[in-house]
Write a structure and sequence with these properties.
Blueprint: E1 9-14, H1 21-38, E2 43-48, H2 51-57, E3 66-70, H3 87-93, E4 97-100, H4 103-108, H5 113-125, E5 129-134, H6 138-142, H7 146-157, E6 167-171, H8 185-199, E7 203-207, H9 215-219, E8 226-229, H10 236-244
Parallel strand pairs: 1-2, 1-8, 2-3, 3-4, 4-5, 5-6, 6-7, 7-8
Helix pairs in contact: 1-2, 5-7, 7-8
């Protein structure tokens, strides 16, 4: 599996801490059947459910239609780390991707960019594609530091061995996560152009209150290679609207 940037847009659904077994299975089955019904599509889809569901759900989605990812992983392959999950464990369950450095992890779990880089190295060692998240807060943007903050995060979070085949960058303005706010077309254009100058040919996703109503405009923006979707990925029809906007 390669993350190499292509004409296919990458549509990633982050379910966060949502979903029990029954509704997770129902959502996945409905989504897979809806994709099959379309017969042809111009996107690659990755679902990142809670770790408790991955083992069951990977058997429901054909690998040609849906790929699977974790929402985080530990930097170590194994050990005395109660409650954590390793990249090797995710790979063993059928994952090909893992989200790292999401703003909620950076804020709520005090994860530094150095920690994110170590996790990305572990992901690469396990054969996973790391989706490395970066983004500024409202205060940082207001202070005119958005580009500097994102540049610092990119430099400190992406490991030396990162390539277009094993690493994806996701720009998620923190002020637009779960707030209903969305960066303007110019905001996205300018930041993704800035990131492109830093990461070369790595795919760049946009994440931040992506919805069916704004997906088409976001996805047609230069240097936007896909989207990282939170709450809307829990609603099958809306998530499909986002995906087919590609």
């Amino acid at each position: 599996m390669s993350a190499t940037k292509s004409a296919q847009k990458l549509i990633v659904g982050n379910w966060k801490m949502n979903g029990l077994l029954a509704d997770g299975e129902a959502r996945t089955e409905e989504l897979v059947e809806a994709i099959k019904a379309r017969k042809s599509f111009l996107f690659d889809m990755v679902l990142c459910p809670p770790a408790t569901l991955i083992g069951v759900l990977t058997s429901l989605g054909g690998s040609s239609l849906v790929k699977w990812g974790g929402q985080d992983c530990h930097a170590k392959e194994s050990g005395a780390f109660t409650g954590d999950i390793s990249a090797a464990m995710l790979q063993d369950l059928g994952c090909t991707y893992v989200i790292l450095g999401h703003s909620e992890r950076r804020q709520n779990h005090k994860e530094s960019s150095a920690t994110v880089q170590e996790k990305a190295k572990a992901a690469h060692a396990a054969g996973l594609i790391a989706i490395i998240c970066v983004g500024e807060t409202d205060a940082e943007r207001t202070a005119g530091k958005a580009n500097d903050i994102v540049s610092e995060q990119l430099a400190a979070s992406i490991p030396a061995g990162a390539t277009a085949a094993n690493t994806v960058v996701a720009y998620e303005p923190v002020w637009a996560i779960g707030t209903g706010k969305t960066a303007s077309a110019d905001d996205i254009l300018n930041m993704h152009q800035h990131i492109r100058g830093k990461v070369g040919d790595l795919a760049i996703l946009y994440g931040g209150s992506v919805k069916g109503s704004n997906a088409a405009e976001i996805l047609k923006t230069p240097n936007v290679d896909g989207v990282l979707v939170g709450g809307a990925s829990l609603k099958v029809e809306e998530f499909l609207t986002i995906a087919t906007a590609a």
